[in-house]
Every structure is written in C-alpha cells, then in structure tokens.
Amino acid sequence: MGMSVTISVATEWDAEQIFRLQYLCFQSEAALYGNYRIDPLVQSLDSVREEVVSDCVFVARLGDEVVGAVRGSVTEDGAASIGKLCVHPRLQGHGIGARLLRVAEEALAEERGAKKFRLSTGHRSEVSLRLYRRVGYERVGTSQGDDGVPMIVLEKQVGAGSYATTA
Asked: Rounded to two decimals, what is the model's pTM?
C-alpha cells in the first residue's frame, strides 16, 4: 500500500469526505436490493455533519483521504448502536472495517458507558454478516428499515469477540 492507514476521531472537516465515501460505498448495497433510496444514499450532508458533532464517529485515513468511517451512539438501554460502517471499495478486504469497528466499540464502552453493541445489516449483505460474526456478533432478530429493506439485527456484549491485527 505504501502508506499506513490510520484511524482517528472524525472532525467537522471530515464530514464532506465521509458523506462522499458513504455514497460511494453503499452503491453496491443498494444494488443488492434494487433500492437506491437506502438511508446511507439519501442522508444529507447536514445530517452527516450533525452526527460527526454529536455521535462517536471515527475515520480511517490514507494520507489526507478518508477511506473508511463508522458511527455509534449509546441508546437509552445502554446498548451502543453502531452504523454506516464503510470502507472505500479499493481498500476492502484489508481489515480496515474490523479496525474501525474495534475502535468504535472501545470508545463507546470506555467513554460512553455502553454495556453491549447492536448493529444491523441487510439480510443479503453476506460480506458484512461474515465480518460481524467473525468479531463476535450474534443474530438477535430482524427488522425492516425505513427504506423497506429487511435487516438482520446483531448484538454482542462488551468484551466479547476477537479482532485480528491487520491493516
């Protein structure tokens, strides 16, 4: 790769790059469902900016370029809701997504008091499901997104799961 990918807390200045990356990364997800109205594709830039300010948001950088992102917040029941994990298509498969997920989990547990982690992904999203299972998430149910996509809901307790040190 030449340069190392670094993970850091997102800043307000990252919002536009996150917005563009999210739009690029979720195209393949939309194609799986034939639905280009999924939340990551219709979210506004202002909404992404608000999340960067209020939520726990991390980015992966290759030099100055944001090549990955993840967001999380703690809900009333003490669960951390993690979402919109994405990695630039040219860098997928190098462990960047797992690194982002691990950093978000650590921050949500240590800084925001999360007791468990919860996330959801589309029922056809095999690559995402494999990653989540590999790092300790278990299916706990299903839901339907506001966009009509059937989702699988996964959870894991704080401290569960293991991560390989890659990327």
From this structure: 0.90
